[in-house]
Amino acid sequence: MISSENARPANEGLNEKEPVKIILAEDDKDDQELFIDALEAADVPSEVVTVENGQELIDTLRDETQPDPDIIFIDVNMPVKGGRKALEEIKSDKELKDIPAVMLSTWNHPSDIEDTFDKGADLYVQKPNSFGGFVLILKKVFFLHWTKALLDPVKKLFFVSERNI
Question: Domain Response regulatory, which positions (predicted)?
Answer without folding.
Answer: 21-142
